[in-house]
Amino acid sequence: MSVHRFVSMGCDVIVGGATAAEMRAIEHLFAGRDRRFSRFRPDSELNRVNDAAGSIVQVSAPFAELVELALRAAQVTDGLVDPTLGAAIEAAGYDRDFSDLTPSADPAEPGARGRWRSVRLRQTLLHRPRGVRLDLNGVVKGKTVDDALALVDGDGFVSAGGDLAARGAVDVALPDGGSVRVLEGGLATSSTTKRRWLRAGTLQHHLIDPRTGRPCETPWQEVTVSAATCLQADVAAKAALLLGDKGPRYLERHGLAGRFIRSEGDALSVAWAA
Question: Quick one: 262 exposed, middle or buried, by C-beta within 10 A (0-12, 13-18, 19+)?
């Protein structure tokens, strides 16, 4: 199987099984989503929406589609995966591309709690209260991985920053050094260790708890989930990590398999075949 690599959305993208024409379409898809939804491009549609003076903003149909998916993710996770945490993640210090972050003597600022219920979408008219800043990154990446795989005719896989969608057997390395074979579907990992930075000597990370507006406190260092799609796996992994000790029960209730890694390195599996 041919394998191609490129960089987009601040992570390595790996594609297997695609033809040259399919690769061009996949790269075009990733580049377009990055231009539209990046927090770090001043001209992105996301920043235009977040910086709008009014509370009602006309958005493009592609933007509205991803907002709808993000609100659905918030609903099914009871607000744990919240698209309104843009201001909170900036308050924690993640206010520029991760590669440009450096330790700062300034402490992290208090972050605003999630307010996903205050966002309304009517076709392409978006209502969000002033001061609410959207961050759709997780949903955008998972959906883009799924959409990219749909561009591959036949067996193949797409991985972005470790989140995967596959059709046909693919062996995937796990954070604790093990591996799993994915036959079809999605695999995603949420981690408090991948994107971290220092503010006033205190480690911050990018997984914001919408209940506090701050980087979450959890016994899990990493949570990996297997699901029908990459987007579903990504949403479930984030929710399970944020739920702490209740995370394994959350996956059981939703009939999903997952692997939890504690900070000490201990692993816990839920319906995970060895």
Answer: middle
Q: What DSSP line would sit under 36-75, residue for residue?
A: HH-SS-TTSHHHHHHT-SSSEEE--HHHHHHHHHHHHHHH
Which residues of the chain fall below pLDDT 70?
272-274
Whole-number Å distance between alpha carbons of 98 and 195: 7
What is the reported pLDDT for 135?
96
Is the Cα torsion angle 80, 86, 91, 94 positive or negative in sign?
Answer: positive
**CA–CA dist 195, 41 (Å, integer):** 19
- Residues 230-242 as b/e (b if ≥16 CB within 10 A, e otherwise) read bbbbbbbbbbbbb
pTM score, whole prediction: 0.93
Among residues 150, 156, 160, the alpha carbon closest in space to that of 234 is found at 160
Q: Dmax over Cα atoms in the chain, in whole Å? A: 53
DSSP letter at 195 equals: S
Give the pLDDT of residue 174. Answer: 81
CA distance 231 to 209: 19
How far, in Å, CA of 152 to CA of 154, rounded? 6
Q: What's the pLDDT score for residue 273?
A: 58
Q: How far apart are CA 127 and CA 219, in angstroms?
A: 36
HEC letters along 166-194? EEEEEEEECCCCCEEEEEEEEEEEEECCC
